[in-house]
Amino acid sequence: MPDGTHTTIGQPAIRIDGRAKVTGMARYASDEVVANPAHAFLVTSAIARGRVRGFRLEAARAVPGVLDILTHENVGGEAEKPQPMSGGDTTTTLESDRIWHDGQIIALVLAESFEAAREAAHKVEVDYEAETPAASFGSPGAEEEVREAGEHKDYKLGDAAAAFAAAEVKVDARYGTPTQHHNPIELYTTTCEWRGGKLTVYESSQFVYGLRASLAKQLRMDPGDIHVVSRFVGGAFGSRGGITARTAWVAVAARRLNRPVRLVPTRDQGFTIVTYRAETRHHIQLGATRDGRLTALRHEGWEVTSRPSQYNVSGTETTARIYACPNILTKVNIVHADRNTPGFMRAPPETPYMFALETAMDELAVSLGMDPVELRRVNEPERDPATGKPFSSRSLMPCFDQGAERFGWKRRNPSPGAMREGEWLVGWGCAAAAYPANIGPAACRVTLTAEGRARVQIAAHDIGTGAYTAIAITAADRLGLELGQVLVELGGTELPAAGLAAGSSHTAGICNAVAKACEGVRQRLAQAAVTSNEGKLAGLDPASLTLSAGALRGPGGAAEALPKALARAAPGALEVYAENIPQGLPPESIGKVYQGQMAMSRGHSREDATTYTFGAQFVEVRVHELTREIRVPRAVGAFAAGTIVNPLTAYSQYMGGMIWGIGAALHEATEIDPHAARYVNDNIAEYLIPVNADVRSIEVIMVPEQDSQVNPLGIKGIGEIGIVGMNAAISNAVWHATGRRIRELPIRIEDLL
Amino acid sequence: MDVLLKVNGTEHRLAVDVRTTLLDALRERLELTGTKKGCDLGQCGACTVLMDGRRVLSCFILAVAAQEAEIATIEGLAGENAPLHPMQQAFLDQDAYQCGYCTPGQILSAIACVQEGHANSADQIREYMSGNLCRCAAYPKIVAAVQQAKPLMEGS
Q: Where does B86-153 sit in CATH, by number?
């Protein structure tokens, strides 16, 4: 820890919300009970491009219990389309007759029961004016353009083309990653309830203020008249980061019926009514000297998006700053197709882009006859290669060394196919992981009560990350309390604002805000104690007083119990509100969070330093010599992410990320019918996610790292990085097992026949 | 249609649409929202409950067909402020979840897994717990939780 004063930060703690989760008492947005709700069922488009000519609704309306049917014809003007968090424009739903993609929301059926709404929705007949859609890369009608610099930048250092042409050793290869869907287990439920002109929305969210702001704009309301509630979130992974179209229509429906409305979309509708990870293509050229030093690095990416959106992830922001190289050139292209608008999904830029770079690095190691870990060591940069700025901390090689040691890497026979065990071909692969240490502004209110308890209020989001507990740990640490003495309230717009829980930024943002408010409490208590005419702390320097073990303490052992210290500072409870603005962001950035906008200091865009989390991942795969079945018996991930607030939950997060990597590399792909531009396997029996039997040994090493520059608590963030190196580590291990270099994910039996 | 459901030892009389699943009856009518809807297609296991001690998917059972059975849901395992069932305690201790949405189904499935005699090795637990998807991927810790709870459940 940077200043050596923490007592509970860094100690493993069982989740404070754990009992609620194991007893079924945790109330997810889908579980909120409202009085006498009407039930909504979506009708979605059966074509991917064209227009709705009209509806025939007689059969649907005749279903007993049907209350209303919303289409563009009767409510189109009552809401505007949502504003995505990134990428500008997006597709419409009921605002017009236009069809932008398959599965687009075109009507809502409202009924007394879920069963009646579903039956009626299936009886809605639609006349389409269909056009031929473009599904993806290479489809006739898909439009490609170069992504202009703006939200994301390109890098041009030296002359990468000339350096590549002259290089002694080269890799020149193309890679691809598929469409993937988040599939959190909680469905994309929305419940809306009006009381007078005020609207309450129960929807699981990664950014309650963002949801409120967009919805207010869509419905032309004052944001203050909307209350968003999201106490527990049943998985998110990016899918609940930005508002999507459904929310406003449920609100409109509830207003028309003058009654609460609950929408529980189906699992397959979840594939088209929210975002997804778009498929990508990559061209990588690496040039190196014979001793392995990189002389040229070119990375060009292609990403699919919807017709109106400019959404892209531009992972070249990361691939340009992993390795020392004097000649770097990056470029990103976006390809518009007749698809829904993509969005954030776990490690949005790095998961696809680092797959390409880290597989190419393995290919380079093979060409050089060099150990892949040693190739990384040779190319370890002194400073950020893309900008020349220093790294606030960089522990890539300690991660590689500790990971290699645990994995037993030195026993690896470098020849492919050389490590058999019975009928199984054994392969060992590794890859680097990196993710920017991002942080956003946040506000927080801490109330200390006469009973010596603290209440912490912050509109943070616990998407499974352990935010409830991280907040409590930080407050207990700073106020000198036991964990059980801290009550945490989060997940609602009635609370002080916190930003988007995404991009591994949230723990850093919210814990630093909590610490700041707690410091305000300490200052108030200290000031009251030292200016008092009596007491052991009178006359002392207020800066020398600390809070620990239930008391305000001075140097030399003088102490005063918390209730007494509190009584001096405040007659009842002491309440402190604080706003934390991370270094490099303007003071008004907290206002942007209150207005529901993204305001994030990114690890690759800071003035003072480049701040990144690094990791190294090692994987063993086994490929059956006859069936070519692929298994992952073990994986080791070593990560250095500054201060770890709660090692127990951090382990779960890293481990979950690594298993996501097994899914991404071997299982997950949303298949698209190229003619209909329609997702084919839109359910979680056919969209394969890892199950218990797919996972065996996953080991996580938390490499100690102190970084006092990244932010006051030294927290870098851990949610994303666990997946980042897994795709390449697995593909590199498959090469080592079989001699086959698979450059398109997922890797499946048919690729190895 | 009028049905009688016996849930966690309490009898409930209610009128339901014949198409209403046991899952929707529990969640929407009895406000027992600990049982979760994750797919409504029998694919994810989030809606697992015990019927006469046997683990079943409540999205695949119509409420009208559940009338003769003793149904146990997550809410029935431990009372408010009462000691947790060993499996609940094990999930808590092992951090065998993240978001927690699949957890009620995992816990009920894990209890049945032990009672069926399908928790004799890590491999067997993995196999017999693979009907319950966890997108946060807490799987290794779920296996550890089942191993922690098993001897306590068996009284050894």
A: 1.10.150.120
